[in-house]
Design goal:
Layout: H1 12-33, H2 58-66, E1 70-74, E2 77-78, E3 83-84, H3 94-97, E4 120-126, H4 127-136, E5 144-152, E6 158-165, E7 168-173, H5 174-181, E8 191-195, H6 234-245, H7 251-259, H8 264-274, E9 294-300, E10 308-309, H9 310-318, H10 323-330, E11 335-338
Parallel strand pairs: 3-10
Antiparallel strand pairs: 1-2, 1-11, 4-9, 5-6, 6-7, 8-9
Length: 339
């Protein structure tokens, strides 16, 4: 399954680091899900992607053999080892994304360059689109008048947003807004917000975001998706599997479903409302709007930002770092041990 998670052409030390965290993630999932649903780990991206012998590669096989039996632990327990494509320059604290307090999943600064094609992105959304996303995240302020960054982490990544409208003012997690708006549209939570009408001006540097403020107690991740205690039918399970294999759900949504099975039905309902089954959904570049009443998001990176940045790990491996040093950088305080 490693070939489906990372490019086999990358440096061997980056492949070894990915092998360790993929193994660790899989083992943790097995231990947490044992006895639930009759399976430990799915062979699709609902857990980790596996496409059989045809999807294997000599280099990834070598990385797996070189790290055989190695996993990351913290305090003697199997660590939670999420990863993402590109952090945009600094990883995120797990508390601000999914909640919880894991000392080894704090934000780290990447003071080096990467070759990531996802270094920067832009998305222009109408006020109506932003209002829809806010409602999906459980926030209703009437007709939207302003959306701004409320709080940021020490690296300038927005952690909470404030929506101001005709019915009042409310705050929400930037991650919750991203998931509600679509994580292929708002590609990361490292962004600035401005009026799309002023898009002809120079891009706003992310460093110009408001100064960090204390982060309030976290709210449950994925608040924009309803939960359901009603078991899914066999037909619904098949639909969810089909949509997953078509690529409708991204890594963050799949991880949210894995960690919170009660949200799977909500994700299915939302997907069926927005896509036609059988047609894969591809990330589409968002044009910069020029009409009034639009919001322009300018950001860096791709993904939730927690844990290992794959493009960051590649850059460090290319600089000569071994996989152990890479893992210590992204998961400080963890220990590399046998299963």
């Amino acid at each position: 399954m490693l070939k489906m998670e990372v490019n086999p052409a990358w440096s061997m030390e980056a492949l070894k680091a990915q092998a360790v965290i993929s193994r660790t993630y899989a083992l943790r999932s097995v231990l947490q899900n044992r006895g639930k649903g009759g399976y430990d780990l799915r062979d699709t991206v609902m857990s980790q992607v596996y496409r059989g012998m045809n999807a294997e590669d000599p280099k990834t096989d070598q990385a797996i053999r070189a790290t055989k039996g190695m996993v990351l632990k913290y305090g003697g327990e199997i660590a939670f080892t999420p990863f993402h494509s590109h952090s945009g320059g600094a990883t995120a604290d797990v508390t601000t994304v999914w909640g919880g307090n894991m000392p080894y999943l704090k934000g780290v600064n990447e003071d080096f360059q990467t070759e990531s094609p996802h270094s920067t992105w832009e998305a222009s959304l109408s006020a109506a689109q932003v209002e829809d996303a806010l409602r999906s995240a459980g926030v209703n302020v009437g007709r939207l008048q302003e959306l701004r960054v409320e709080q940021s982490d020490p690296f300038g990544r927005p952690t909470t947003l404030r929506a101001i409208g005709t019915s009042g003012s409310k705050t929400l997690k930037s991650h919750s807004f991203r998931m509600a708006a679509g994580s292929n549209v708002i590609r990361s939570t490292l962004f600035s917000i401005s009026s799309a009408a002023s898009s002809s001006s120079a891009p706003i540097p992310l460093a110009s975001l408001s100064q960090p403020k204390p982060v309030p107690p976290s709210t449950p991740p994925g608040t924009g998706v309803p939960t359901s205690l009603t078991p899914m039918s066999a037909a619904e399970e098949r639909q969810l599997t089909d949509l997953t294999e078509q690529g409708v759900f991204n890594a963050e949504e799949l991880m949210d479903m894995l960690l919170n099975p009660e949200k799977r039905k909500g994700y299915l309902i939302r997907a069926l409302r927005t896509v036609r089954p059988g047609i894969p959904v591809q990330p589409q570049p968002q044009p910069v709007g020029t009409a009034s009443g639009r919001f322009l998001f300018r950001g860096k990176g791709w993904g939730h930002g927690v844990g290992l940045s794959q493009w960051g790990a590649k850059a460090l491996a290319d600089q000569g770092w071994d996989f152990k040093k890479i893992l210590s950088f992204y998961f400080p305080g963890t220990k590399l041990e046998g299963m």
